Amino acid sequence: MGLLRYGDSAAFTEIYNRFWDKLFSVAVNKLDGDLELAEELVQDIFLDVWQRRKTLAITGKLSAYLATAMKYKVIDSRIKRKRAKDFLQNAALYPPIADTSTEEQLSFDELRDRLAALVKELPRKCRLVYTLSKEAGFSQKEIARRLNISEKTVESHLSRAMKLLRAGLQHIFIFFLF
Predict the structure, then answer these.
(1) Predicted TM-score (pTM) of this structure
(2) Which of 47, 52, 84, 163 could lock onto 56 through a cystine, CB 3.0 to 4.6 A?
(3) Which residues form the RNA polymerase sigma-70 region domain (predicted)?
(4) Which fold has domain 2-93?
């Protein structure tokens, strides 16, 4: 393991050649003859050993470490298979939900465009106050200071803007409800 820790590929190749067949044989037996999955799990173990070579601290025999790693890979594999099987069985019980994301996006785009058009139609001061508040995120106090008007006037402009926008969007909201 010492040479492997320093990235010696010959040491890794030796470990690979020495243990690959044994691990593969154990995996095939534990996985009811699934050769592809057994090979994948063995490869995963060796890939993990190579990737963790600098930090891997094996205190006992390497063969025992690899056997334990294979045991846990097989357990994880069985759990994943069971979950996949359960998922497929449950999915068969429920009809698929229609994907309306494109329709929703188009509706959202229409709503956003309509709102932008309505904002453009607001009276100049009202539009400015609305934009500073809702789009730029300024507080009413900041808007009043920037525009040199009272906070009450800012509140009045915002109230008027919201009333006009609500009225302009009302037909769209009714359309979405039905």
Answers:
(1) 0.50
(2) 52
(3) 18-83
(4) Rna Polymerase Sigma Factor; Chain: A (1.10.1740)
